[in-house]
Design goal:
The protein is an all-beta fold. It is 1% helix and 52% strand. It is built from 1 helix and 34 strands. It has a 6-stranded antiparallel β-sheet, with no helix packed on it. The protein has a 4-stranded antiparallel β-sheet with strand order 8-7-34-33, with no helix packed on it. A 4-stranded antiparallel β-sheet has the order 9-10-11-12, with no helix packed on it. The longest helix has 4 residues. The radius of gyration is 19 Å and the shape is globular. The N terminus is likely disordered.
Length: 389
Amino acid sequence: MSIRIYQDGQWHLLRGNRVGKNSQWLPLASHHRFALKGNWYYIGGGQSALYGCGWNNYGQLGLGDTLNRNVLAPVVGGEQWNRLASGGFFTLAISGGKLYAWGNNDAGCLGLDDREDRLVPTQVGSAEDWTAVAAGDNHALGIRNGELYAWGSDENALGLGDHQISSNLPARVGNDNGWTAVAAGAYHSLGIRNGMLYAWGCNECSDALGLGNVDYRNIPTRVGTFDDWEAVFAGDYTSMAIRGGELYAWGNNSYGSLGTGDTVTRNEPARIEAPGTWSAVSPGRSHSLGICDGALYAWGMTDLDGIGQQLKPMRIGNFDDWSSVAAGYDHSLAIRGSKLYGWGRNIFGNLGLGNHFNRDMPVRIGDADGWLGVFGGNQCTFAICDKIQ
C-alpha cells in the first residue's frame, strides 16, 4: 500500500520505510505517530473518506436527500478526498484529481452545464488534474495544471471581464499559468500566481480586495508588490494571506474578525501581531480561527465561554498540536492529534454531536481518530478521515 505522513496540512511521501522532511530521510517504526523536532506526524493509508453533517436543505451534504444530520455521515463518492469548499448552499470537492459538485445549482455554480440541483457528488467534466477549489455564495473557482477557472453567476467575482457575466461550466480566467491557490468570499475572489497575490470581485462595501480603494475588479488584479505569498483565505467579506509565516488581513472588520485590535475596516493588507509562525487560518462570517506554532487561536465573535468578542487573536487552551481549523458561519471546527473538535452554534446539528445544543468550548466530535482535514460551510460541516489499510 502507499503510505503518507500528514502534518500542518501537508502530505509528505515515504521512500520505502523512511519519511522525507526538509531533505532529511528518517527511519519509520510500526506505530502510527512519531515526533520530529517537536512536531507530531500522523501515518495514514492511501485512501480517505468524506463525512458531512448539519444543514442539508438543498442536498449540500451530498447524502442523497435533503434531510439535516446531527452526526457525521459518510459521503459516497471518491476515495482520495483532499480538498473541499462549501459555498452558500453547494459543495465542491476534489478526489484523486477529479472535481465533484453537489447541492444547489440555481446559479450554475456546480459547473455541470445546467441549473439542476444534485443530491450526491457528481463529477465535473473528465479532467483528473484539479489541485484547488473554492466556493463563494454564487460562484466557484478551481485550479488545474496551474490554470485558473471560474464558474457560477457573480460576474465580477468570476474574473472573466465584462464580456462574460456567468458560466455553467468552468471557464478559464485569463491565459496565465502558475496559479497555486484560490479563495472565495461571498462576492470576491483571491488567488496566488507565482507567489504574487491577486484579488477581484465586489469591493464597494467590504474593501476585501485590498487594493486601497472601493472599486470593483472583474479581472484578477495584483495586490501589493510582495512575490512570496504562500496561502490565501477568504471569509464572507474579509481576506487573509500568509507570507513567511506572517499573517495579513484586510476587509470588513465590524466584528473584529481581522485581528487588528480594533473594528476599523482595512482596504490594504495589515500585518497581524503574533508570537510565532502561522500555519493555517480560517476567516468565517463574524469570527476567525488560526494555528500559530501549533497553538489554537480565535478572534472576532468567538462564541467561547466568558470570552465573547476578541479584537486580537487569543490562544485557546494549552495544547500545541492543532493541525487544521475551519470557521463556519456560526460554528468552529479544529483537529488536534488527529481528533476532531467543534464549538459554537449547533441549531442544525452541524457540530456532529448527535444533538442541537450549542457549545461554548471545544468538544470532541465522536471517537474516531485519523481526521486529516475539516471544512465549515453555511451551518454545515465536512471532515476527511484517513482509511488505515
